[in-house]
Amino acid sequence: KQEVTQIPAALSVPEGENLVLNCSFTDSAIYNLQWFRQDPGKGLTSLLLIQSSQREQTSGRLNASLDKSSGRSTLYIAASQPGDSATYLCAVTGANSKLTFGKGITLSVRP
Amino acid sequence: ETGVTQSPTHLIKTRGQQVTLRCSSQSGHNTVSWYQQALGQGPQFIFQYYREEENGRGNFPPRFSGLQFPNYSSELNVNALELDDSALYLCASSPSTTRGGKNEQFFGPGTRLTVL
User: Is B42 within 8 Å of A36 when comparing Cβ atoms?
Assistant: First the structure.
């Protein structure tokens, strides 16, 4: 059974700091990994998708890496801003087509 | 291009009642998945529909059922509601040229269900 872990559960940083969010998964047989952003009470916004054959993806200030063999992914946020405050979830797609999510990391960027 | 939409936004029901939630997939997407997100938790997979057929189901009882229509919109039905069914219900659509739906999934805003 696939399990996705995100530690820590919460993170508070000052504005301008570069930060790394970590995600680990137990079964390396995945098709892809997605990072999502969720604002309180809202749906999920897809940030980055990494196919299992890829090592990283970049979008603006965000960079996500994937090491499938070790079951790890990181989301790097450069020059954090208060508007980046949200919960960040990672999820992997397995052979049964479902997304398995971690519990998320709640990020607070202080002005 | 219209994104994924869900209705209603909020819903309050009492224990034992039945509820139907609706989802319109993004244009060009033929695969719809439903997820349940309890407070403080990550979303949990309920089931997926591909071209009107169920294509995978998570660990949810049979009182959770669904439909997908020819226009690829979808419904989630929950019978005999329990207090623990209170959650945010999320719908996601994805394009798929083959059965399996392993492409990027795009989520709607969700329906907040409260069971009293």
Answer: no
pLDDT tens for chain A, 111 residues long, are 899 999 999 999 999 999 999 999 999 999 999 999 999 988 999 999 999 889 999 999 999 999 999 999 999 999 999 999 999 999 999 876 789 999 999 999 999
- Residues of A within 8 A of B89 (CB-CB) are none
Task: Give the closest of B42, B88, B110 to A103, CB-based.
Answer: B42
Q: Are B76 and B26 in contact (CB under 8 A)?
A: no
* Strand B10-13, strand B111-115: pairing: parallel
Q: Does a cis peptide bond (omega within 30 degrees of 0) precede residue B95? A: no
Q: How far is B15 from chain A (nearest CA, A)?
A: 23
Cβ–Cβ gap A44/B107 under 8 Å:
yes
The answer to whether the CB of A59 falls within 8 A of the CB of A47 is yes
φ and ψ at residue A38, rounded to 5 degrees: -135, 120
Contacts of B49 (CB under 8 A, 6+ apart): B31, B32, B33, B55, B66, B67, B68, B74
Bridge pairing between strands A105-110 and A10-14: parallel
What's CA B5's distance to the chain center, in Å?
11
- Residues of A in Cβ contact (< 8 Å) with B90: 43-44
- Do A90 and A35 touch, CB atoms closer than 8 A? yes
Contact B98, B105 (CB under 8 A): no
